[in-house]
Amino acid sequence: xxxxxxxxxxxxxxxxxxxxxxxxxxxxxxxxxxxxxxxxxxxxxxxxxxxxxxxxxxxxxxxxxxxxxxxxxxxxxxxxxxxxxxxxxxxxxxxxxxxxxxxxxxxxxxxxxxxxxxxxxxxxxxxxxxxxxxxxxxxxxxxxxxxxxxxxxxxxxxxxxxxxxxxxxxxxxxxxxxxxxxxxxxxxxxxxxxxxxxxxxxxxxxxxxxxxxx
Length: 214
Hints:
It is built from seven helices and eleven strands. It has a five-stranded mixed sheet with strand order 1-5-6-3-2. Strands 4-7-8-9 form a four-stranded antiparallel sheet. Strands 10-11 form a two-stranded antiparallel sheet. The model has no long low-confidence stretch (mean pLDDT 90). Helices cover 35% and strands 25% of the residues. The protein has two domains: 3-134, Methyltransferase, Cobalt-precorrin-4 Transmethylase, Domain 2, CATH 3.30.950.30; 137-213, Winged helix-like DNA-binding domain superfamily/Winged helix DNA-binding domain (Arc Repressor Mutant, subunit A, Orthogonal Bundle). By secondary structure, the protein is an alpha+beta fold. The chain is elongated.
């Protein structure tokens, strides 16, 4: 439900803006594409949660939302372009004659929250520092697995042995698949399982997801 605040709005907004954009905060100058906004909603929901300050330029200046239509587009982002539907709370603030909307997205317990891209494909995003990144297929598998009760670890077998033998340092998914000579879908499943049991760690480095022994 949308809320409106009247007291100390400017002071509150400036305190948020002073933090800049980071893992749990993003600025949006304007909203004219619900799909792009849905990417941010997905990223926050799949990571640590966060808030979008809508009507704030990248440099922190207040520009304000232009109309009720922008608020409608924001609602579409959460309801139409996110699957499953993401939880978003909209609060409106008024400062310097402008209306700023703060959209707060809690971390979801139904990961992955996917968002529709420009081609109509549903993709899951995560938030890393101040960027929204398309999630690795391994994270997707990890979220799916995490929805199930945690059972015993997969018994040590030839597939796991091959996988662990080639995991020297940090490597991408494609590098691991090539070296282990295992089907890609099997490597994804095994990595997700090993991450869940803290045997393998994932990192995002140089614009790529990499994996290494924990």
